[in-house]
Design goal:
Order of helices and strands: HHHHHH
Shape: globular
Number of strands: 0
Largest sheet: none
Radius of gyration: 18 Å
Low-confidence stretches: none
Number of domains: 1
Structural class: mainly alpha
Mean pLDDT: 91
Strand content: under 5%
């Protein structure tokens, strides 16, 4: 019984880490792509919040359906069933994605000078922190884990910025 509880908590932890990281990265990808294309702050906010809600719902429902499908598969095979709630997995995913995904938008919401640069700093620190948090549970070196998460998110941001810049420069 103790293993089931640990396994269940680990599943929710995985949901929270994955969704927080994805929320930060995809929302900042919107910010970076918009900056690369020199779009206005209002467009950044519209696209950012559209991303938060639509992608948050998409991820939550996908996680819910995946967890539910796994349980139904186990039940059909007669295996021992996972006792975790697919709905809880979906809720953890939605909340983690949206809370973390708000971070890149703060400078735009509060109209702070140097919005894009400040957003990039917030995102870098946040991604590193998610990696460090992950290390407490995985027992991986905190610096390595933080840098890994930071690097993956940074690469995604670079790609988004480059796409926005190139499309604005050569196709619009």
């Amino acid at each position: 019984m103790k293993f089931k509880k640990v396994h269940e908590r680990a599943g929710y932890l995985g949901d929270a880490i994955f969704s927080a990281s994805d929320g930060i990265i995809t929302t900042f990808a919107v910010v970076a792509g918009s900056a690369g294309a020199s779009l206005t702050d209002s467009v950044v906010l519209i696209l950012g919040f559209a991303n938060l809600l639509a992608d948050g719902i998409s991820m939550a429902s996908g996680n819910y359906l995946g967890a539910k499908s796994e349980q139904e598969y186990e039940r059909a095979r007669g295996d021992r069933q996972d006792s975790s709630s697919p709905a809880k997995h979906g809720v953890v995913t939605f909340i983690g994605f949206n809370l973390a995904g708000l971070l890149p938008l703060f400078p735009f919401l509060f109209n702070i000078e140097g919005k894009f640069g400040l957003s990039a700093i917030i995102v870098g620190v946040s991604l590193f922190a998610v990696g460090v948090l992950r290390s407490f549970f995985t027992r991986k070196n905190w610096l390595s884990s933080g840098f890994e998460t930071f690097s993956i998110g940074g690469f995604a941001a670079f790609v988004a910025y480059a796409v926005g810049f190139l499309i604005d420069k050569y196709f619009i």
